C-alpha cells in the first residue's frame, strides 16, 4: 500500500539485516519489509532511490486487484517476488505482515493524509461504478435518467397541455440520432417526473378525501365515522400501482397480439398511462369543493382533455416517423384501433379509481 | 377492486395456470389453424390468431415447470395464513 511506502520515505530506512518476518514485530513496520524480501532471497538491498518514483503513482487499482492476495500469511508469500512489478512490492509485502499496521499517528502527516484521502476517493468512485454496472442489468439507469431530465418550463407547459390540449398544433417529437430529444428541450416528449409526482399526490389526496368523508357503516350511527386510517393510505397506494401495472400489461399484450411495429418503449407507456393521475387529482379536489356535481363535471372535462391529448400524442409515437402512409393498410387500421382503445381506456380508469372516494 | 401486490401475483399465477392447463391433443389440435408455423410468409404481418397461438404455445413451453413450485408456494401460503 502507498501508506507503507510513504512511511518508508518519511521515516527513513531501518538497517537491513535478515530480520524475522514475524508479524508481531512492531519496529519493522515502515520499511524493512521491502528490503526483507530481497534479503531472504539473497539479492542486494535496493537503495533509497528505488521506491521513490512509485511514490505518487496511483496504486488504488492495483490494491483493489491485489486484495485477494493480502490475506495470505508469511509462509505463502514466497511466490510473490517472482511475479511482482516494481511498484507492487510494498503492497504485497505490507499484506504479508498483517501485524505491522502503521499506527494512527501516521495520518497527522499532511502528505499521508492527502494520499489516504485520494485513495479513499478513488476506491469510492470505483465502488460506485461497480454498483452502477450491476444495477444497469436490471433497471437501466441511463434510460431512466432521460425521463427525469425536465425543468420547470417543461412541467408547466406539459400540465397546461394535459388540461387544455386544444390549441397546441405541433405534436411531433424531435429526434436526435434515433433517440428522442430530452424532455427539457421538447414539450411533446414523455417524461416520468410528472407521473411520479402525480401518483404520490393522488395517494395523498385520496387520503384527504377519505378523511373528509363521513360514512355510516352500521344501520343507525350515533356518531359519524371517518373512513380514513393510515392503513388505507397503503392500500390506496398498492391498489393504484396494481391497476397501473394491469393497464400497461394489457396494452403490451395488445401490442404483441396485433403485431404493430412501434417506437414505443415500456417506460413511455408507463409515462402515458400515468398522465391520467393529474386529471384525477383535479377532479378529486373539485369533488371536495362541490360534491357530486363538481366531481363529475370536472371529471368529464379532464377525461375529454386527456383523450384528445393521448390521441394526438400517440398518433405520432405509435406511427413511428410521423403519420406517413404505411405499406399495408391493415397496419394503419390496427394502429387506429389501438389508439382509440388506449385513449378510451383512460376515462374509464379515471372514473374507476376515484368514484369510491367521492360520496 | 384490486387489493394489492399479492393479489396481482395470485391473479397472474391463476391466469398462467389456465393457459398451461389447455390440453394439447384433446383441445388445441382441434382448433383450426393450430399447427400453422409453416403457413406464415416472411415480411407479412402475422394474423391475430397466429400470434395468440404462438403465445399459448410459448407460455406452455416456458412456464410448465416453474409453475409447479409457484403453485405449491401459494397453496402453502393459503394453508398457513388463510
TrEMBL record, chain A:
GO terms for cellular component: COPII-coated ER to Golgi transport vesicle; endoplasmic reticulum membrane; endoplasmic reticulum-Golgi intermediate compartment; Golgi membrane. The keyword Ribosomal protein does not apply. GO terms for biological process: endoplasmic reticulum to Golgi vesicle-mediated transport; protein transport. It is a multi-pass membrane protein. Keywords: Endoplasmic reticulum, Golgi apparatus, Membrane, Protein transport, Transmembrane, Transmembrane helix, Transport. The chain crosses the membrane at residues 192-213, 233-257, 269-289, 295-314, 335-353. It is found in: Endoplasmic reticulum membrane; Golgi apparatus membrane. The keyword Membrane applies. Residues 1-30 are annotated as: Disordered. PANTHER family: YIP1 INTERACTING FACTOR HOMOLOG YIF1 PROTEIN (PTHR14083), YIP1D-INTERACTING FACTOR 1, ISOFORM C (PTHR14083:SF0). Has a role in transport between endoplasmic reticulum and Golgi. Belongs to the YIF1 family. This is Protein YIF1. It comes from Scylla paramamosain.
Automatic annotation (TrEMBL), chain B:
Keywords: Membrane, Protein transport, Signal, Transmembrane, Transmembrane helix, Transport. It is found in: Membrane. GO terms for cellular component: COPII-coated ER to Golgi transport vesicle; endoplasmic reticulum membrane; Golgi membrane. Residues 1-23 form the signal peptide. GO terms for biological process: endoplasmic reticulum to Golgi vesicle-mediated transport; protein transport. It comes from the Eukaryota. Belongs to the YOS1 family. Regulator of endoplasmic reticulum secretion that acts as a key determinant of brain size. Required for secretion of extracellular matrix proteins. Required for correct brain development by depositing sufficient extracellular matrix proteins for tissue integrity and the proliferation of neural progenitors. Acts as a regulator of the unfolded protein response (UPR). This is Immediate early response 3-interacting protein 1. The lineage of its organism: Eukaryota, Metazoa, Ecdysozoa, Arthropoda, Crustacea.
Amino acid at each position: 500500500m502507498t501508506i507503507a511506502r510513504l512511511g518508508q520515505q518519511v521515516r527513513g530506512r531501518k538497517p537491513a539485516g535478515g530480520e524475522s518476518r514475524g508479524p508481531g514485530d512492531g519496529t519493522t513496520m515502515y520499511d524493512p519489509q521491502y528490503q526483507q524480501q530481497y534479503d531472504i532471497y539473497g539479492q542486494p538491498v535496493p537503495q533509497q532511490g528505488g521506491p521513490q518514483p512509485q511514490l505518487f503513482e496511483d496504486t488504488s487499482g492495483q490494491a483493489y486487484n491485489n486484495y485477494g492476495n493480502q490475506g495470505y500469511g508469511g509462509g505463502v508469500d514466497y511466490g510473490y517476488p517472482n511475479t511482482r512489478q516494481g511498484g507492487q512490492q510494498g503492497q504485497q509485502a505490507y499484506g504479508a505482515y498483517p501485524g505491522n499496521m502503521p499506527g494512527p499517528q501516521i495520518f497527522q502527516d499532511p502528505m499521508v493524509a492527502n494520499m489516504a484521502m485520494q485513495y479513499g476517493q478513488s476506491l469510492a468512485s470505483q465502488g460506485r461504478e461497480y454498483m452502477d454496472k450491476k444495477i444497469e442489468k436490471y433497471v437501466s439507469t441511463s434510460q431512466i435518467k432521460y425521463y427525469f431530465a425536465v425543468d420547470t418550463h417543461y412541467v408547466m407547459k406539459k400540465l397546461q397541455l394535459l388540461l387544455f390540449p386544444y390549441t397546441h398544433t405541433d405534436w411531433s417529437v424531435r429526434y436526435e440520432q434515433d433517440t428522442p430529444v430530452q424532455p427539457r428541450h421538447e414539450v411533446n416528449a414523455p417524461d416520468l417526473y410528472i407521473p411520479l409526482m402525480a401518483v404520490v399526490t393522488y395517494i395523498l389526496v385520496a387520503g384527504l378525501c377519505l378523511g373528509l368523508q363521513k360514512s355510516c357503516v352500521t344501520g343507525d350511527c350515533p356518531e359519524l365515522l371517518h373512513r380514513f386510517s393510515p392503513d388505507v393510505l397503503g392500500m390506496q397506494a398498492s391498489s393504484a400501482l396494481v391497476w397501473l401495472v394491469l393497464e400497461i400489461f394489457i396494452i403490451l399484450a395488445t401490442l404483441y397480439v396485433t403485431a404493430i411495429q412501434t417506437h414505443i418503449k415500456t417506460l413511455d407507456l408507463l409515462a402515458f398511462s400515468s398522465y391520467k393521475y393529474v386529471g384525477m387529482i383535479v377532479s378529486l379536489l373539485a369533488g371536495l369543493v362541490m360534491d357530486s356535481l363538481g366531481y363529475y363535471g370536472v371529471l368529464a372535462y379532464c377525461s375529454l382533455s386527456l383523450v384528445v391529448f393521448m390521441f394526438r400524442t400517440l398518433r405520432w409515437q405509435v406511427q413511428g416517423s410521423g403519420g406517413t402512409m404505411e405499406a399495408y393498410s391493415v397496419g394503419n387500421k390496427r394502429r387506429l384501433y389501438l389508439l382509440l382503445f388506449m385513449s378510451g381506456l383512460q376515462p374509464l380508469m379515471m372514473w374507476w379509481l376515484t368514484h369510491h372516494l367521492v360520496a | 377492486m384490486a387489493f394489492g401486490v399479492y393479489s396481482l401475483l395470485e391473479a397472474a399465477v391463476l391466469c398462467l395456470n389456465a393457459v398451461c392447463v389447455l390440453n394439447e391433443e384433446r383441445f388445441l389440435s382441434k382448433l383450426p389453424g393450430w399447427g400453422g408455423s409453416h403457413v406464415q410468409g416472411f415480411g407479412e404481418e402475422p394474423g391475430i390468431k397466429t400470434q395468440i397461438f404462438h403465445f399459448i404455445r410459448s407460455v406452455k413451453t416456458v412456464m410448465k415447470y416453474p409453475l409447479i413450485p409457484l403453485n405449491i408456494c401459494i397453496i402453502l401460503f393459503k394453508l398457513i395464513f388463510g
